[in-house]
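job 3f2a | input accepted
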Amino acid sequence: MTTIKTTWHHLRRSPFQSLIALLVMIFSFFVVSFFIIINSGLSRVLTYFETKPEITIFLKDGLDQTVINNLQKELTTYPNIKEIKFISKDKALEIYKQENKDNPMLTEMVTASILPASFEVTVSDPKTLEKIYQNYATRTDIVDEIIYQKDIINSLLDWTNATRKTGLVIISIIGLISFFTISTIIGMKITNRKDEIKISRLLGASNFYVKKPFLLEGMFYGICGGFFGFGLSFILAFIFRSSINSFFQPVIFIDANLNFYGLVLLSEIFLGSFIGLLASWIGVKRYIKF
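job 3f2a | predicted structure (290 res):
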């Protein structure tokens, strides 16, 4: 209890330095939490596309119905076919108008004649998509364009990997800044209290007794930084949750899994206490020498 009072006394005696250390830690864990939430959402988007293998084959204009029927029969011969849906020009116009019903300007000049007919093929094995793509990509006499799930997945993978790498770099830089900020501030506080430390030693205080308040102070910064940094990102995520999820429909980009967020919070508090303790320990070891 005496040590905790001493730690609290250290915090109150230099509030400006304490506030800087605390704000740096809060900002650090806010960024960490932000990237965790973003990465979790991107993983859900990626999983959604990976578990719904689909390819869309857009047809050339003017094809005979016999050619279209033969193409549909060919598609049924592939293994692992779940569904083959033919979208006529009229159906394509109906879908287009439904998707843009809130923007009449986009539908006024669009007619069925300028929209291509297509086949939407859903399979249970993504390998089948590769076979279909390879067989029909070169048939330019009947196929105008093929939108392949693999292209979407590869793009998402690139975005996800880029986000992760960027996040790791930013988090590492901010983490180092936080680490050295706490270490430096603890060192400054030790320097300002050298006379008190010497008196304590003369009165018989042990090395650990003298160092412990500074170590607890570092842990305090880390724990509070982890808690409030996560709390801030969590609040912002749920404020904008509806608009973000509506943008990524039908994928739930930000879910309401409290177990997941609880685990993240505990992990950040633990990590924060470890960083704060390690940073203050280095500061104590550097500035307190007996």
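job 3f2a | The first strand starts at residue 54 and ends at 59.
job 3f2a | closed
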